Amino acid sequence: MMSAATAQQRQLKPLAGLLYNEDDSHRFVMDPPGKMKLERLDQLVDELADSQVTVMLINCNAKKTNFPSKSWEPHSEGFDPAKGEDQWAHNLKTMLDQGVDPTGRMLDRCRQRGISPWVSMRMNDVHDAGNLKSRLHSKFWLEHPEYWRYPDRFKAWNDRCLNYGLKPVRDYAMSLVKEVLGRYDLDGFELDWNRFPLHFREGEEQQGAKLLTEWMADVRQVAFAAEKRLGHPITLAARVPALPEVSLGTGLDAVTWARRGLIDHLIVAPFWATTDFDIPVERWAELLKGTGVGVTAGLEIRIQPCPGGPTLANTPERRRGAARAMLARGSQGVYLFNYFDMGSAHPDLLREMGSLETLKGKNRSYVVTYRDIQVPGKPLPAPLPKALAPGESADFQLFVGPVPAEGASGEISLGLEGEHPTVTVTINGKPTNVADEAARFAFARGAFADGYNTVRVANAGAQAVTVNLVELLVRFGSR
Asked: Where are the beta strands (DSSP E) in 290-329?
């Protein structure tokens, strides 16, 4: 086991601010096919500079790579525009034909602009798994269905995730790990186990967890060798599901990784369907106590209150609320995934979302959502939708951190289904006032509580009501 003191000797700095993940395809689909220029790569970094973004994680792969890899096939390999257009492949080919490594170019630009350059590796991407003719698929994946979790069925994309219980799969992944760590000058390397989140067959997760822990030990040695080559430390991080029991239950024993010194940092996050406003950062911190491993909570771009239901616009208020909830629970900064619009559409948020101080006095909101990564065979019930018979009530918990500052007021917004729904709402046992006819209920600052706030919705009508949205808004005038 590597102690916290050893980590300090490697001069690893605690993370803070915003950690921004640039995904594998985004940079290649912003320009017309074959028209991509170097300036695009620089622009994507420049948009994040002079803000609270301290780390940029540049994703290097899905099933294929977006750099001239020798171990895995690049996405542009075999591309011929005469046989059909592919914007991503065409623009990658344009860069490679000019002798440009897009990942390397962006890493260099990060250093020029004062952003710590990291590489993120997707460990099990299965986009387009239902379309075997998709150009996204690698030869390894296509030619070896016996390496899939379930080659004999297809209910969901995750069925065709690679099975890390098999040595050829682990060896294949290790080949890219070695190449990336041997190729680039990077400050950090993330193993993204949330893309996609199931790596073993159902019932084999704990046996698989032991295999994966030893594989992670091998990764650590590769990273140490890279540190020796570069002459500076590399933060080795892993991204795993938001709940400790779900991470372990899916075969990702992140706590053991930390205790054995196999990682330096942990990102805990949802998969994709929805931002999770209730990530238990403090539980992770307690489990990792004494290891020197820090925790950063991650936000997704989507907000979906009910599984399979409609999504909400991810407004600045909702982004601030999610970030503040994580920071208030001890998250070392905030990790952003799929937030492609931040630099161009919301540069102000890049200067707000990274600390409690800069979020102070800003309008924000908190939404009840659900856990979108679950252990196979062990479903976690979603809070919404919630059916209420006449006279019934239900409690919903929303973590807001410290009581909002002076000048704040609160509002609860509900989504209700039913014939003439009539409800009453309390916040921490205190009554609210109906703000308008759109199921909004106002209350004063004195009704807020530190940490979790309990919203109780009671059906006061004669007909059944279904609650499909619970949102708590904190208002500071027009800010």
From this structure: 294-299
pLDDT tens digits for range 431-468: 999 866 679 999 999 999 999 999 999 999 999 999 99
The b-or-e profile of 177-198 (16+ CB within 10 A means b, else e) is bbbbbebbebbbbbbbbbbbbb
Helix (H/G/I), strand (E/B), else coil: 117: strand
Residue 130, C-beta contacts closer than 8 angstroms, at least 6 positions apart: 154, 157
Locate the domains of the chain by residue range.
4-367, 386-475
Could you name the CATH architecture of 386-475? Sandwich (2.60)
Q: To which residue do tokens 């919705």 refer?
A: 457
Report how far residue 453's alpha carbon sits from residue 367's, in angstroms, rounded to the nearest whole number: 12
The owner of tokens 């982004």 is 319
pLDDT 10s digits, 391-437? 999 999 999 999 998 899 999 999 999 998 999 999 999 999 986 66
3-class state of residue 116 by DSSP: strand
CA 323 remoteness from chain centre: 12
Place of tokens 């997707």: 122
Distance (Å, whole) CA 455 – CA 277 = 15
DSSP 131-186: -TT-TT--HHHHH-GGGBS-TT--SSGGGGSB-TTSHHHHHHHHHHHHHHHHH---
Q: How far apart are CA 355 and CA 358, in angstroms?
A: 6
Domain covering 4-367: architecture: Alpha-Beta Barrel (3.20)
Determine the residue type at 477: G
Q: Are 191 and 150 in contact (CB under 8 A)?
A: no
Helix (H, G, I), strand (E, B) or coil at 397: strand
- Segment (H or E) for 108: helix 102-112
pTM across the whole model:
0.96
Helix%, strand%, coil% for the chain, nearest 5: 30, 25, 45
User: What b/e string do you get for 354-370 counting C-beta neighbours within 10 Å, with b at 16 or more?
Assistant: bbeeebebbbbbbbbbb
The residues pairing with 99 across neighbouring beta strands, listed in sequence order, are none
In total, the chain counts a number of residues equal to 479
Q: Which letter does DSSP use for residue 69 in this model?
A: -
Whether 305 and 368 have beta carbons less than 8 Å apart is answered as: yes
Question: Who contacts 143 (Cβ-Cβ below 8 Å, separation ≥6)?
Answer: none
Terminal Cα distance for the chain, rounded: 48
Q: Which residues contact 399 (CB under 8 A, 6 or more apart)?
A: 277, 278, 325, 328, 329, 366, 451, 452, 453
Report the distance separating Cα 19 and Cα 42, nearest Å. 18
Distances 440 to 29, 76, 304, 375, 435 between C-alpha atoms, Å:
40, 51, 19, 36, 5
